[in-house]
Design a protein that fits this description.
It is a multi-pass membrane protein. By secondary structure, the protein is an all-alpha fold. Helix content is 79%, strand content 0%.
Length: 448
């Protein structure tokens, strides 16, 4: 591995960084919302199955592409290509992932800014600045711009410092902090009145719903979004992994951590909804649909925290700090994709590339903020419902159909010499070649 590129200094460093990328608002904000709106425990069951049966194989494909290529997404894919048309195809897929990551970060930074604004609101309340506290949680243009800029500044600061001193160092700090806050909040919420009903809805599935098409589409989309697939992120993270590491176990560990934290997030937010309902907050409409939808954490939960009095200030502060940390561990990975491309393909200094690309994405965020009523949902839909599944599917096509089988086996054997005789090698190549592309395509077509 080139010294100039940098790399993860340890196995735990990669696991924390990759899990941090996977564990973001998609898990702690998106997963519980999707669960509440798609049949509760039935959605959880389908999500768990699809995460390991479709998302994990695609996740492994992206990691292998990156470690084989030891470069950014475009270069790594082109190294696998033998013919000119394959190299052109590789550029489209690799650069498409970079564009997808940039678009996600452009709207992600806005939502993360809201999380930060809700985190500082209790602080202003405690010090007696009630008017400022009210302003920071109001949908105001200046407020949205201020916190979006602040969040993007933090993301740029970390990425400017590189892989080991930036991504790895901060992931090791932020991930344990996030997990500790999540567990403490769960312990508090599940002991409140109404939480038992929420646990019942979350943990007792209605098996008759598991084959509903809309539920399947939502669950697969959630699995792909939460694992950062189709964004070039895992390709570039894979390129920073030592050739001595066992990718099969590493990929499984990251997937398991991601799914576990999504499950824990649901264990916090679903019972919290029912606690709020027990205190008179309207959660569901008469037809059983979720009232708040994607704005759940900004409507239902603050109302719940307000009902707790002084204790609610501290609980609310801890919760939105948790959300902000989760957002930051994901945003740094999204920015690394385009930065690595600029550094390696155009010989830009890392600090200059990070600042320039960060500013370009911030400008897109500002355009979205100014036109937030229609652009926020539009950009999110283009990037997550269309971009991610297509790029992830094409990565599977590359590994299954373009990458020569012997080269693929030799790459997996690095760090895992006995893999050729394992169940993984007997199943995964065929699965990635046929099942994953077809299944993802079917879900994508249905979503249209």
């Amino acid at each position: 591995m080139s010294v100039s590129r940098g790399g993860f200094s340890s196995r735990i460093g990669f696991i924390m960084a990759a899990a941090g990328s996977a564990v973001g608002l998609g898990n702690i904000w998106g997963f519980p919302t999707q669960t509440a709106g798609n049949g509760g425990a039935a959605f959880v069951l389908v999500y768990l199955v699809l995460a390991f049966c479709l998302a994990y194989p695609a996740f492994m494909a992206e990691l292998l592409i990156g470690r084989y290529g030891q470069a950014n997404a475009v270069t790594s894919l082109q190294k696998m290509s033998k013919r000119p048309w394959q190299k052109h195809f590789a550029f489209v897929v690799g650069f498409g992932g970079i564009i997808c990551a940039s678009l996600i970060l452009s709207f992600y930074g806005i939502i993360a800014g809201w999380m930060m604004s809700y985190a500082v609101e209790p602080v202003f309340t405690v010090v007696g600045l009630s008017s400022v506290a009210e302003w920071v949680i109001t949908q105001d243009l200046l407020r949205n711009l201020l916190f979006t800029v602040l969040f993007m500044f933090m993301t740029v600061y970390i990425i400017r410092r590189g892989v080991e001193q930036g991504i790895e160092k901060w992931s090791k700090r932020l991930m344990p902090m996030m997990l500790a806050l999540l567990v403490l909040l769960i312990i508090y919420v599940v002991n409140q009145e109404g939480a038992s009903e929420g646990l019942q809805a979350y943990l007792n599935p209605d098996i008759s719903r598991v084959l509903e098409p809309d539920l399947l589409v939502s669950a697969l989309g959630q699995a792909f979004f939460s694992l950062s697939l189709g964004t070039s992120v895992m390709v570039i993270y894979g390129s920073y992994i030592s050739k001595k590491e066992n990718l099969v176990t590493l990929g499984a560990q990251v997937t398991l951590i991601d799914v576990s934290i999504a499950f824990l997030a649901g264990l916090l937010i679903i019972p919290a909804m029912y606690v709020a309902q027990a205190q008179g907050v309207a959660i569901f409409a008469e037809d059983g649909s979720l009232i708040s939808g994607s704005s759940l954490v900004f409507t239902v939960l603050p109302t719940l925290f307000d009902s707790m009095g002084q204790m609610g200030l501290f609980i609310g502060f801890a919760f939105f700090v948790l959300m902000s940390i989760a957002a930051l561990t994901s945003s740094i990975s999204m920015l690394e994709g385009p930065v690595s491309y600029a550094v390696e393909r155009h010989n830009m200094a890392r600090e200059k590339a990070t600042t320039f690309i960060g500013l370009v994405i911030l400008l897109i965020s500002i355009v979205i903020v100014v036109n937030i009523s229609f652009m926020l949902d539009l950009v999110a839909m283009i990037a997550t419902q269309y971009g991610q599944p297509i790029i992830a599917m094409l990565c599977c096509v590359f590994v299954g159909w373009i990458w020569q089988r012997n080269e693929l086996l030799n790459e997996i054997k690095l760090g895992n010499e006995t893999v050729e005789n394992s169940l993984f090698w007997k199943v995964w190549p065929v699965y990635t070649k046929f099942v994953c592309p077809v299944a993802i395509a079917m879900v994508f077509i249905h979503s249209l």
